[in-house]
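Hi everyone,

Forwarding the result from last night's run.
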Amino acid sequence: MLKYKKLTNRIIGGVMAVSTLLPGFGYSQTTNYTAKEKPMMEVESSYSSERGTRDGFYGDQYFNPFVQPNVLNGGEFTLNYYGSGDSDGNNVLDWNDYYNFEANERTDINGDGVAGTQADKDILEDYLLDNTAYLPAHWEFQNETGKISRFENYYNNVDITDEHPPGPDWDCDQYSMQFMINSTGVENIEGSPLDPNLYDFSHNAQGNMPGYFVSTSSTNGVGHAINAILVGDNPEDFNSWYFYEPQIDARVYPGDISMDENSFAYIQRYAYFWSDIDNQYMHNIEGIIEFDLEGGEASITWESSSLVVNQPVEQSYKHPGGEMPSDVTIDYQYDNPNYSDPSNTGNVEGVADWASVIYSDSITQTGGNWDSSHYNFEIFRSWKAVSDYSPIIDTTYGSINPVYNRPAQVITVQDTTRPYFTYVEGDQDLLFSEYSPADQSTGGDNSGVYAIGRNVSSDQGEDPNSCDFYNFDEIYTDSIYDPSGNWRDTTFTFSVSLDPNQWDSQPADTSVIFGTDVSPDNLGWATAFNPAGVGVNITYEDDSNQGEEGTCEFVNYDINRTWTAEDSICGSTINYTQTIHVSPAENQWDFFPDDWQGIYSSNLDLSPENTGGYAEASNPSGLEVIVTYDDDSNQSSDPLNCAHYNFSVDRTWTATEETCGTSISDVQELDVTKPMSLMYTSFPDDIDIDYNESMDPENTGEPTGVDTLASEIPVSYIYNDSLIEDTPTYTIWDRYFELTEDVCGTQTDSDSTQRITVYKEVGVHENNLADRVTVYPNPTDGKFSIRYQFDTPEQITTEIYDFSGQLMRRQSIPVPAGSETAVFDISELTNGLYFIKIGVSGGQFTYFRIVKQ
């Protein structure tokens, strides 16, 4: 059995002696503090809380009092500490540790000071069988009782800080610091300002517990240093802290000699962290919280903003697993900033779901844009897994820091890809006027850096008066290469030839009259040019099909004129043919009669002598012309058809020359119309009729008439009545007659009028009202009476008109039901016939005639 601590505290008279370094004993304190005085100089600096961004992933988690510091592994997950159970020391707890269980610091699992016992092995077996979730040394998963047990087992059974003899250079500060070195650890302790001749570094981080040292004041008012560790779940609660006196291995409470109840407790750690101000890792004493004590009751007077105040989420306290990716070779890609992303170069696989993987790179890339080492280099990638639930960095697979001795993943970046062309003009057939040297080719390369060179050969002649100056081949060879020596080339040819001649102007096909000058001087010359600027000669040749004189072909023929344009250097030509059609002049009218209009008569003569004369024509080419005409009439032969009297004649005149038979034709219009020839032979007189007589012409009289142009045409009449006057006693109508015949529907150009007077019947509108009214006496000499007989009261209106219809008097009176008589006096009216109109309120009325004498 291996035991790490003996009971070496000195006992005097049965009482444990307190180190002379406690206030009031032996040597004086190196530095004295008064109660309530903060015993440290605060360092103003800024600290990065980012993890995994620095070489080696260093950085102490002094601000998190819940987690194991793991300072021997750069803050990562480690099993290299007292009682971890990692028997074989490979940083993994598995059945290999159980089957190869041996005594060492890591196998004192129960913390009794004796390593490698069966009791220790049984605890490990339960853990591997998942009968328990964690071991006693797994600090983060213990409750308060378990943490106190672990801590007390450590300082009672393992730690030997209390055995150090006191002296002038060893007081409470050194006891507190030595205990923190052993129980918690100092990262990169060899690089720290701590004196290795004063302190023992051999047990650095042995306990791997998140301990702190405390500045306080002893009961005699002298500043004092002790230690503390969080065993509860709230660092802001004074009672969650376990205060410890390393000189005598005893827990401290306010009022004990090591902590006056009216003092303070400033909790700190000697930590290693990155300083953004100093831009380096550094060691310093950093505080996390300060309590003020009044009669043993604590209150917070200061707290670090970085202090972690919540218990991390529990997780399985096992290695996160995973396997680092293999070394890999990749192509350099300047335009893809993610070309070395793990998705392309390999990632850590098989990591537990409660951890995340991070990495950092060290790159050997050097040189400028045209240095191949800028594109062919190595990336050393350091991998590790990080817990998602607490700020514990769990493990490193490969590191670029030699401290870990774990080879990083090597990513070899190389450029073996040939550059490429993105634009090349390529083979082209060009005209001399379009020719210019080929544009520069463009390209690209995966490195983003490349150069393009060109070689040109040509067989062009030097003399502008020689054809090979305009007809030649030019061969281009372009090469593209990159800084890594990769290259490719391409060849293309420009074949250049003299431009074809081009017509500048071309006389168009045309037609001319026989006898016209057909030479180019009259009809126009063709012109041409060459775009290359060489001279061009113009010639022409005519081919005619003209016949012998006296024939139509002599005056009517074609000329095919072929034009040729030839350049003066290479002799290339272009041709086109112009057609000239020669024909005799068109006949023309010397005289043409106007359209003619006439009146039908029985002896109508439509010969040219009577309708405008004969047309006359000639030919400007001197050919003989004959004029003829032809009539097309639409007259009807039936005398009872209107078209016999109203018709037209289309007279077509034709002028024909006898040599080629060409002719012209025009139409003269002849229009014949029937005149107004109806006449009355009798007309009815004006007439007066009574209201009950018919107004039909058979009763009132009909006119008669005759067509003086053709007596055989039957003549009838039409009429229209117009009301001229309407009075209560009569109406006057004017009847307008017109004669008409059915053949052409012609009418007289003026109408004739008959006047008809119709006298009305008295009482025609009574509607039985007359049965209720009596007028008497009649005739009268001036006065008369009207008797009314009604079943209901009525409003009676009485109007008196003279014979001409003029209203002479009007009276409206109410009449009661029954019989009623009203008297009227018309003595002042002249003698004569009068009409009386009597109306009631319902709209009925009746008339009576009365005679005044």
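DSSP finds eight helices and 47 strands in the chain.

Cheers,
N.
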